[in-house]
């Protein structure tokens, strides 16, 4: 896909389109349309980002934990995952076997030491091309305040991780902060090789008839079409201050949405909630971008941050 090749720090991407953590099961890669054609040829994607793993296995939250709103999706999955050991023993060999594109492992810890222990355990695996550090989780050493809410904590965490790896180190930021640019700068200064944003916003839905919350946890993460303007503004804000590449996500459903994020300053995009409507969405987005660039004889790299 030569018109839409891009890169994220150390990682060369054959396509600037990827999938957002937690929204794209590996099985989607096997889905076929009515004519038997693969819905999502891997070559459409520049990389595959895994669901966030944590040190310990997590069973996730009770149902209901997904609720579709007028213009988005609420989720309170609760980072359900097999834990570091389960991931390395069971999931990683499957991913290695199935993927012909770079694998980025999303992970999260409850303390800086735990994050470090996790990256150290993953380092020997050549099939892992890079990491996405999910800083939206509570820090047990700081009264449960999310790592991503404090620039000093982000700096300390990212510096500790950067010292332990030469692989691509993406820091995924939470939008639930007062000044996201400050968080991005802290990550860059500490050695992140790129920034991903946005993770979900806080959201809630209530049935007015019964007064009952729609999610068992009552509040959850909000994503999808409704968050796009927020995500665009935050990507633009971060792009104004950092020199490292940005992997953008938040409500991308079409190639035109993706292009808007490129103009705002993203070097690559990730498709999340759109996969629940159509697992073929990332392939359609990559195809649309490729055709647009070819028609206009322009490379996607020339459009990054080219906002008028
Ligand atoms: C069901 C669901 C599960 C998610 N799980 C994760 C996760 O494990 N780790 C993470 O960093 N983000 C997770 N996210 C957030 C997405 O990766 C993405 O940042 C966010 O949804 C915004 O993009 P979108 O609007 O295209 O979905 C999840 C989102 C959804 C909808």
* Spatial ordering of strands, largest sheet: 3-16-15-10-9-8-7-4
Characterize the overall form: globular
CATH architecture: Alpha-Beta Barrel
Q: What fold name goes in the CATH topology slot? A: TIM Barrel
Query: How many strands, which pairing sense, and closed or not: the largest β-sheet?
Result: 8 strands, parallel
Count of helical stretches: 8
Q: Regions with pLDDT < 50 over 5+ consecutive residues?
A: none
Count structural domains.
1
Terminus-to-terminus distance: 26 Å
Beta-strand percent range: 15-25%
Class computed from helices, strands and strand pairing? alpha/beta
Fraction of residues in helix: 25-40%
Indicate the CATH class: Alpha Beta
Task: Work out the number of β strands.
Answer: 16
Write out the distinct hetero groups bound to the structure.
flavin mononucleotide
Task: Indicate the radius of gyration in whole angstroms.
Answer: 18 Å
Q: Superfamily at the CATH H level?
A: Aldolase class I
Question: Can you walk me through this structure?
Answer:
This protein is α/β, with parallel strands linked by helices and 308 residues long. The chain has a single domain, classed as Alpha-Beta Barrel (TIM Barrel), CATH 3.20.20.70. It has eight helices and 16 strands. The strands form four sheets. Strands 3-16-15-10-9-8-7-4 form an eight-stranded parallel beta sheet. A four-stranded antiparallel beta sheet has the order 5-6-14-11, with no helix packed on it. Strand 5 (66-69) and strand 6 form a beta hairpin. It is globular and about 55 Å long. The structure holds flavin mononucleotide.
């Amino acid at each position: 896909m030569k018109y839409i090749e891009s890169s994220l720090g150390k990682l060369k991407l054959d396509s600037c389109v990827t999938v957002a953590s937690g929204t794209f099961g590996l099985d989607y890669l096997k889905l076929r349309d009515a004519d038997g054609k693969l819905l999502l040829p891997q070559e459409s994607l520049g990389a595959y980002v895994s669901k966030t793993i944590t040190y310990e296995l997590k069973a996730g939250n009770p149902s209901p934990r997904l609720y579709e709103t007028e213009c988005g999706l609420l989720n309170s999955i609760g980072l359900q995952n097999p834990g570091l050991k389960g991931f390395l023993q069971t999931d990683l060999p499957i991913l290695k076997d199935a993927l012909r594109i770079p694998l980025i492992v999303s992970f999260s810890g409850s303390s800086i030491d735990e994050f470090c222990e996790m990256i150290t355990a993953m380092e020997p695996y050549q099939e892992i091309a890079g990491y996405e550090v999910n800083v939206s989780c509570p820090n047990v050493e700081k009264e449960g305040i999310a790592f991503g809410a404090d620039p000093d904590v982000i700096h300390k965490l990212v510096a500790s991780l950067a010292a332990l790896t030469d692989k691509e180190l993406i820091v995924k930021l939470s939008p639930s902060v007062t000044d996201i640019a400050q968080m991005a700068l802290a990550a860059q200064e500490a050695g992140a090789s790129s920034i991903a944003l946005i993770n979900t916003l806080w959201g809630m839905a209530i049935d007015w008839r019964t007064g009952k919350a729609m999610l068992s946890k009552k509040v959850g993460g909000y994503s999808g079409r409704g968050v796009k303007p927020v995500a665009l503004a935050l990507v633009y804000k971060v792009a104004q201050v950092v020199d490292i590449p940005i992997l953008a996500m938040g409500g991308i459903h079409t190639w035109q949405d993706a292009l808007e994020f490129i103009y705002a300053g993203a070097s690559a995009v990730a498709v999340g909630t759109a996969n629940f409507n159509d697992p073929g969405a990332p392939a359609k987005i990559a195809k649309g971008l490729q055709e647009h660039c070819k028609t206009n004889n322009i490379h996607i790299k020339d459009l990054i941050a080219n906002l008028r």
